Amino acid sequence: MVAPSLKLQDLIEEIRGAKTQAQEREVIQKECAHIRASFRDGDPVHRHRQLAKLLYVHMLGYPAHFGQMECLKLIASSRFTDKRVGYLGAMLLLDERHDAHLLITNSIKNDLSQGIQPVQGLALCTLSTMGSAEMCRDLAPEVEKLLLQPSPYVRKKAILTAVHMIRKVPELSSVFLPPCVHLLHERHHGILLGTITLITELCERSPAALRHFRKVVPQLVQILRTLVTTGYSTEHSISGVSDPFLQVQILRLLRILGRNHEESSETMNDLLAQVATNTDTSRNAGNAVLFETVLTIMDIRSAAGLRVLAVNILGRFLLNSDRNIRYVALTSLLRLVQSDHSAVQRHRPTVVDCLQETDASLSRRALELSLALVNSSNVRAMMQELQAFLESCPPDLRADCASGILLAAERFAPTKRWHIDTILHVLTTAGTHVRDDAVANLIQLIGGAQELHAYSVRRLYNALAEDISQQPLVQVAAWCIGEYGDLLLGNCEEIEPLQVDEEEVLALLEKVLQSHMSLPATRGYALTALMKLSTRLQGDNNRIRQVVSIYRSCLDVELQQRAVEYDTLFRKYDHMRAAILEKMPLVERDGPQADEEAKESKAAAQLSEAAPAPTEPQASQLLDLLDLLDGASGDAQHPPPLDPSPGGALVYLLDLPCAPPPPAPIPDLKVFEREGVQLNLSFIRPPENPALLLITATATNSSEGDVTDFICQAAVPKSLQLQLQAPSGNTVPARGGLPITQLFRILNPNKAPLRLKLRLTYNHFHQSVQEIFEVNNLPVESWQ
To answer: Ranges for the GAE domain (predicted)?
Structure first.
C-alpha cells in the first residue's frame, strides 16, 4: 500500500513555506520518494497527478528523469486528462538526446488521425516542440492532411508544426508547397499569420520554393494594401496601427521574394511607398512597421526615389526620443552609407549630434557612421567635430575615434600641413590610444614634406615642452628634433617666432630620458636624437657625450647597446660621425597616396609599351634610353645584341619590355564560413621583396545579426616570421555591412611551404563563438 502523498496544491504551499534550502530539499526528496513508489505500484488512477507534481519539481531545477516512461504511458492512455499531462511531460522531459522520444511517434500518429480536436492540438504542440528529424519525416504526411482541415484551431497548430518541420528537415519543402497557396486565401488571423511564416521559412531554405512563391507576390501586395487602407480587424489593431504583426511578417516575406528580382520589386514599389507615407509614427507599433518597410526597400531593387524616402525615414528615427529607435536608425544608416552615400549625407548634422549621447552603444554607432560619412568635401568640418568629440569621449571609445580620425585624414587630407596638424592634435589629445603605426606614418609624412620641416619641428617642440606623457607624441617629437634640430634655432614664417637655445633643446631631451613615464622605445628615440644633435648644433658636444656615457650601464639591453655604439663613435670614429648621422633619406610610404602613385606609374608603363616600334637606324638610341630607364642598378642585365637584319631588329625591339612584367595575381581563398560569417584571404607579393607576403584577411557578415568582439589570431611555422597589423575594427554589421580587414605580413626567405593556423573568436546571436582551424590549401604562388 502506497503511503499517502501530498496533492499538487499542498506540495506547492509546503515548498514555498520552506524557510531554508535544506527544508525545501527535504520536502522534495520525500515527495519524490512517494512519486517513485506510486510509479512502481502502477497506480493508473493517480498517475497523472503524480506526474504533474514531478513536473513542478522539474521546473524548480531538481532531477525528474525517472518520469520519462510514465509520460509515454499517459500519452497512450485513452483518457484526455492523462494525455494532457503526458504530452506536457513529454515536452518538458524529452528531447532529441533521449532515445525514448522516438517511442511516442506511433502515439502521436494515432492521435493525429483520431479527429478529436483537443487531442490533435496536444499532439501537434508536442511535435512542434520536441520533434526530431526522424519524427518529422515520419509524421509529415499526417501534418499535411491537417493543413486543410475545416477547424481553424487544428489548422493553425498544423501550420506551426510545419514550420518546425521545415527548420528540422528542409527537404520536406515539397510536401508543404501546395497547401500554402490555398491557405493564403484564409481570413482567419492566426492561420494567415502562420501561413506567411511558413512561406518565409520555405523561401529561405529552398530555391525552388522561392521561384514558386514569386508568383503570389501580387496576392501578398493586395493583402498588405487591404491592411493599410481598410484594416483587417479591430481586435488585432495596436495603437491605431492595423495588425502590425501581420504587416511586419508580410514585409519580411516581400523582402525575400523581391531580392535580386526586378519584376517582383516593381510590383511592390507602389505599395511600399504607400506604407512608408501612411503609417503613423507616433506609436512604437508604427515605427516597427516603418523600420521593416525600410529594410524591404533597401533589400529589393527599388526605385531611387523610394530609397531616398527610406533614408529620410531613418533620419526621422534619429530625432525620436526612444534610444532603441535611434540605435536602430544609426545601425541601418551605417549599412546604407556605402550604397546611398549622398542620401545619408543629408542627415550628417543629426548624426554628429548623436555623438554626445550618454548611452555608450549609441555614441559608438554614431562614431562609426560619422567616420563613414567623411569625404574630400567635408573633411575639414567633420574633423573638427570628431576632434571635439575625442577630447570628451569615454575612454573605451577613444582608441576607435583616434584611429578613425587618422585613417580619414590620411585618405582625404586637403594639404600636408593640415594633415600634420590633425595628427598632432590626435597625438596630443589621445596619444596613448592611437594605433602602433601612427608614429611611423607621421614620421614618413613629415619627412616627405620638405617645405614643412621647420614648421613641424617647432610645433612638436612646443607640444613636447608642454607634455611628455603621450608616448607616441614624444617619439615623433624626439625623431624630428634629432633630424631637424638645427631648424629650431632659425626663423619660421608660418608660426610665431620661437626663441630656443641649444641648452634648452638638450635639457628637454634629457628630461624625456629621465622621466619615469618614458617607455624603453621612447628613451631610444631620445638618445638617438641627442646623438644626431651632436652634428646639427654648433655648440660643444661634451654634454651629449656625458649623457651617452651614462647609459652605457643601463639595465635595458637595447638602450645600453645604443649608448655603447654611440660612445664608440665619439671615441674611435669621430671623423665619420657627421657622415653616419646625416639626415634620413625619404622613406617610401604605404597607403592611399602610394597606391595612386603606383597606378600612375603603371599607366605610364602601359603608354610606353604601346609606343610604336622605331626603325633600324634608331635601334641603338632606343636601347640606350631603355637601359637608362631599367638599369637602375649596376648589375642590371643588358638586352642581347640586335640581329643585323631589319626583321630581327624589329623582333628584338618588340620583345624588350620597358618595365618588368607584373606578377600574375594570386587567387583569393575562402577559409571560413559559418552562419553567414565568412573570412576570405587575399595575397600580394611585392616585386621588390619576393620573400615578403602580404595577406589581407577580410571578414564579412551576411546574416541577420551583428558580429561583435571579432578577433582574428594567426600562427605560422617557426621557419617563417609573422607580423599581425591592427584590424580595422571589431564589429561586422549584419546584412553585408562594412567588413573588417586585417593585414598579415609574412617573411618567408627560404620559400618554405606555407601553412596558417587561425583562431577566430566573436559574439554572434548572443552566443560566444571560437573556431580554431588550419589552412593547408594556400595557393602555391603565395610561397614559391
So the answer is: 664-779
